[in-house]
Amino acid sequence: MGELSIIIPTLNAAPHLRDSLPPLAAFEAIDLVHEVIFADGGSGDNTSEIAEATGAIHVSAKKGRGTQLAAGAAMAKGKWLLFLHADTQLAPNWHEAVRDFVELPENRGRAGYFRFQLDDDGLRAFLLARIVAWRARVLGLPYGDQALLISSDHYRQIGGFPEIPLMEDVAMVRRIGRRNLSPLKPVAVTSAERYRRDGYVLRPIRNLFCLALFFLGTPPRVIARIYG
Known about the structure:
Elements: E1 4-10, H1 14-19, H2 21-27, E2 33-40, H3 47-54, E3 57-60, H4 65-75, E4 80-83, E5 88-90, H5 94-102, E6 111-118, H6 123-139, E7 148-151, H7 152-157, H8 168-176, E8 181-190, H9 193-198, H10 202-215, H11 220-227
Parallel strand pairs: 1-2, 1-4, 2-3, 6-8
Antiparallel strand pairs: 4-7, 5-8, 6-7
Helix pairs in contact: 10-11
């Protein structure tokens, strides 16, 4: 039996999940995986039907990514947890890197994250990926769209995801600590839809502004309204 629980927060995520069906279906063929959990925040689409069709567990939670992630982790039975966004697909060799990571005893007190990439071949997407790589490596701030791999024991020891509507990923990696974060070689490819809609310049600026507000102690519910 596998020892990895994959936790995916969902909210009207059916279009993205349909795109992710091939790798999701392949999860069952990997002996590393114990279960896939959809932590749903009240979807009005057919997310639950997709969960049933893929054999995933569907857990209802209060809307808010931090709350949903915490609810999914509370249900997880695996010794290791992999938190993955619904609009993110892992590279085909993701499980090899995960297996290598979990087999090292010293990583039980660490966490791993994947390399950021957008499903856009343009120059702006490439430059953004380079900036994200620098932010994760130097500042120790990988975001949730890079996925997060952590042992369930260590996750609970540091208090898990805070039940907040936004910045739950930043709060989590700060609990883990920069020195205890390890980059994994495979990419996590995220939908560029939000960047195409909001702009490759304006969206990162807004994200940086929200991050600054968080570090200044602004309540996450206020930041969530600014973030939209």
